[in-house]
Amino acid sequence: MDDCVFCKIINGDIPSTTIYEDDDIKAFFDISQVTPGHTLVVPKKHVKDIFAYDEDLAERVFKKIPMIARAIKASNPKIIGMNICQNNGEIAYQSVMHSHIHLVPRYSKDDDFSMHWGDNTGLASNEELQKRADNIKQHLEA
After folding, report:
1. How confident is the model at residue 94 (pLDDT cuts 50, 70, 90)?
2. Between vectors from CA 125 to CA 122 and to CA 129, what angle results, nearest 5°?
3. Active site annotated at which positions (predicted)?
4. 38 an active-site residue?
């Protein structure tokens, strides 16, 4: 897309610090550097979000995540963990509408990155949970 910042980065119209690139993806530092080494893995094909991937593209993009994550971790002995996030839609904090995966190295509990997971344990009955599961299952593609 002409106005997509990630497409412009992929095309070389906007500079980036690239750490990996092949025919399918480009991995480059997020400009915000939430933590040192914060990397985005972006498919070169413009897809808006996870819902727009076909099986082939998903395989080609997501199979590279472990390799890139291991390289980031190996690059700094102070990295003790990593968050891998893929947001879909504004409600889920997607700010650029070109699919991307965040690899956020973690150095300590005080490294200025956090996620909050609400705990709704016990709010739904086993029957309600099964009904939700059955509803999702009927929409799975084989």
Report:
1. very high
2. 105
3. 100
4. no
Q: How far is CA 142 from CA 42, 55, 56, 62, in A?
A: 26, 11, 14, 19
Superfamily of domain 5-116: HIT-like (3.30.428.10)
Tokens of 41: 């893995």
Q: Cα(141)–Cα(139) distance, rounded to whole angstroms?
A: 6
Joined tokens for residue 37: 């080494």
**pLDDT of 23:** 97
Out of 38, 98, 100, 102, the active site residue is 100
Check whether 1 has a pLDDT greater than 80: no
- Show the CA angle centred on residue 52, arms to residues 114 and 9, nearest 5°: 65
Which H helix or E strand runs over 66? helix 65-74
Domain boundaries, the chain: 5-116
**Range with the poorest average pLDDT among 16-20, 36-40, 109-113:** 109-113
Distance between CA atoms of 54 and 25, rounded to whole angstroms?
A: 15
Tokens encoding 118: 């609400």
Q: Which residues contact 80 (CB under 8 A, 6 or more apart)?
A: 106, 107, 108
